[in-house]
Structures are given as structure tokens and as C-alpha cells.
Amino acid sequence: MAGGAVDALYLRPGANLTYLTGIRRQRPHATDTNAYADWIEGAYIGPERLVLVAPRMGSEFFLHQARGKPWVSDVRVVLEGEDPARVMREVLHRIAPGARRVAVDDRAWVPMVEALHAAGFQLVLASGLIDPLRMIKTADELERMRRTAAVADAVYAAVLKVLREGVRELDVAHEIDYQFAQHGADYPAFVTGVRFTRPDSDRLHTIRHSQRRLAPGDAITFDFGCVYEEYCSDFGRTAFLGSPPAEVAAMLEAVVEAQRAAMAAMRAGQITAEEADRTARDVLDEAGYGDYFTHRLGHGIGVTVHEPPYLETGDRTVLQEGMTFTVEPSSRVPNGYACRVEDVVVVTPGGAVPLTQAPRTLAVIE
To answer: How many structural domains is the chain composed of?
Structure first.
């Protein structure tokens, strides 16, 4: 903050608040709760003070989360009838007297931004301060991410046992989410993805799971992850019901080789994000599947499931030791089979090391 001439920092409830303060996230709401003054809730951080602001409705959560955290100076509860903009100004001047330049969470509410402008504050994006910190994981963060990855491995092993003829994509997706809960995860990190594909399938790029029932000759692709101890997993594998044809085995072999080549090339200080993407793409091009690899190779991951840097064309970030990514090449043939593999990895001087350990081979369901 001092280096960027930032007097105060405002973080709404979410990943950045969790990362810097340990205040846990609550599960995203399916509908807007619209608590009074919720647009100013969050952490207000000055050079030496941190004050949490919470609407009266739901303030118990913030009061509980503040316990045992000496870096939280106070919890300011906003009562119905109080002017939220006045409370916002009061707290900012309390944590940073004379503050003029405020770094604001990138996902702050529009009324919050308008109120700050109206009060005469100069605004900058908080991501400029926090993103560089979040890119490099500490030893503690990596240990949490290993435990999160272990949950994904265990859930995959459990869900393979429910694959049978006639089960719906929807049923499998619900089983995955149930298994996350059984293994202690807080909640899925994103909408769980399960797809059954075969030649003449016409719904490869539609919804992530449907009423479609599993039949012999179907390839099954998975894309799922969870939040566990505040860190995310993101996992992908491919299975097959019945005897897989040679084309599926060859396609998955190429996908796995593309992942292996990219991970081997991801040596700290020696490759950029876009070069890692190119490495995997070259393998799939050579194998004849390049036209069917239609997305980026991967993305940074940590307290959120997608965060910078991104393994894609145009991202020239040099990979550094301690960065964590997904590496997820795939081949998705229109109206045909799909194969994918995805692991969370950590960058080291010798290449990327996977945190997830489940076999990458095709899981054949008899």
C-alpha cells in the first residue's frame, strides 16, 4: 500500500478478504439476500488498523469470524436506519485519517464506488496490490492445496463406483457433490461437470449435466472441484462404459502426453504462460487433435478456482516457483467422443509437479 501511495484498502466478502485476513467465505447465495447496507460490508484496512463492517442482519458471522484474530481492530455493525455512506466515510477516516487514495476490491458494489467518488476519494483497483501476492503460494498454502487435491482424488475414486448403465449425467453430478460433503469440503468450487459423449452426440457443448442416461459405448468426462480449507481444486478425467474403441484410447493418450510435455516444460524462471500452452498444443497438433483442443491449457488456482496467470496465448508471465496452475488439455470432437485430463500442479525448478494423484489412464467400466 505504501509503495503504491494507497492510504486505505477496501475488500468485500470474498477470496481477497479470506486470503489477507482469514475471514471465511460463506457459500454463494442462489438469490440476492439484500441485507440493509450490505453494499458497504467487508474489511477496511489502513496502515495499522483493520475494521470489519457488517450489516446487522448476518453480523453474527463476522463477529464470530473476528474472534481470535488480533489483527481485526473492531467489527462495526450497521443498524437499519443508519446512513451506510456516512458509516463508510466514518470507518475510512478512522483507519486512515486524511485518506484520499483507496484501493477497492475489483468486485465492489456499484453503490459503494459511487459513494466513494461522491466523498472525493481517488480509487484504484485492489487487484494491483493483491494479485502478485496470491500468485506465489507459501508452504502453508501448498500444504492446504495438497489436502484439497486429495479430496478430489478420493471423490473421483468414489464416483467411479456409481457409474453403470442407465445412470443419468445429473445423478453422477449430484453424487460428486454429495461425496464432496462426505469428505469435508465446504462446497463445490464451480458447477460440477459430467458429460457422456459418443459419435453422433449433438450436445457436447451444451449444459454441464443433463437427463441423458449412460449407455455402453459412451465416454464419460469429468470436470469438478471443491473448496476445502479455503483453497480450491479443479480436476478432470475420462472414463468409458464397455470396451473402448481404439480411437478413444489414442485420443486420451495424446491428451495425457500433451499434459506431460507441458508439465515437464513448466520450469521456474524458464518459460512463459503462453509458451506452456504452446507446448501442449504442439503435441496435440502432431497427433492430429489440435483442431479439437479449443480452450486454454489452464489457469492459476488458489483461493479462487480461476486466477492469474493464465496458460494461454497472450499471457507472457514468466512462471515462478510456487505458482499453482491447472493443466487441462482436452480433445472434443464435434458430434463425437471427448477426452480430457486435468490436474492442479505447482511450478518448481524441475518442472510442474502434480498435487492430484489419481491415475490419468482411461477408467474402463465393465
So the answer is: 2
